């Protein structure tokens, strides 16, 4: 069974690097926004991947630090995420094994409270199918946060907590690549982690084992 996300992919995929190059030149949300006000700064799409990647990190959108550096998860959230996955920086940023595709490729700016805005709604419908088509060897997709979960898992009962709590059933589904839902590793979720201790006790050991298997497969 093919995962529903991949049913939308074009029959003849261009190489990931070619799609990523086109994406990096995109100014849709800045110059011709389809939803609301234009992006308030110069676009800087931040993605990572290659045709050999076995692990996909489907995230939300780059933060301000990633926007400035051009490196995904170059912030405290990235340190926590790498600890969750059991990967050091060298492995995490190895594009031959790990792809990183946020739902919105550019930093969306800050809201009135100083938090990141949601991913730009123009981005995923325009670019995601072509980017995924350039990742033919994926074994595992980690869907981080509600936006990635909605795209990759479709309609779900309940919110993020219920989705992540159903991780065993989601991981065991027959669809390929397999999918594992995660909360965002931001410090803003410290309260969520405290009130859901099963995440670190039960899910993280499985997550690390699955990531290690995917990384080993990419090295073959």
UniProtKB/TrEMBL annotation:
Organism the protein comes from: Methylorubrum thiocyanatum
Domain Uracil-DNA glycosylase-like: 46-208
Source organism phylogeny: Bacteria, Pseudomonadati, Pseudomonadota, Alphaproteobacteria, Hyphomicrobiales
InterPro entries linked: HI_0220.2, Uracil-DNA_glycosylase-like, Uracil-DNA_glycosylase-like_sf
Protein name listed in UniProt: Uracil-DNA glycosylase
Domain of life: Bacteria
């Amino acid at each position: 069974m093919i995962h529903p996300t991949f049913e939308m992919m074009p029959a003849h995929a261009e190489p990931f690097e070619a799609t990523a190059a086109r994406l990096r030149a995109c100014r849709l949300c800045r110059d011709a926004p389809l939803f609301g006000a234009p992006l308030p700064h110069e676009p800087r799409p931040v993605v990572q991947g290659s045709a050999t990647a076995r692990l996909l990190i489907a995230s939300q959108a780059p933060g301000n630090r990633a926007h400035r550096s051009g490196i995904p998860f170059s912030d405290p959230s990235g340190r926590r995420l790498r600890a969750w996955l059991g990967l050091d920086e060298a492995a995490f940023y190895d594009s031959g094994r790990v792809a990183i595709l946020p739902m919105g490729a550019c930093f969306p700016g800050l809201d009135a409270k100083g938090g990141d805005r949601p991913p730009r709604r123009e981005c995923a419908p325009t670019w995601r199918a072509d980017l995924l088509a350039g990742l033919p060897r994926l074994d595992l997709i980690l869907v981080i946060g509600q936006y990635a979960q909605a795209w990759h898992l479709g309609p779900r009962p309940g919110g993020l907590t219920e989705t992540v709590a159903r991780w065993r059933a989601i991981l065991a589904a027959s669809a390929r690549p397999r999918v594992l839902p995660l909360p965002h590793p931001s410090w803003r979720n410290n309260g969520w982690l405290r009130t859901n201790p099963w995440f670190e006790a039960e899910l993280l050991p499985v997550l690390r084992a699955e990531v290690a298997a995917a990384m080993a497969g990419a090295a073959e």
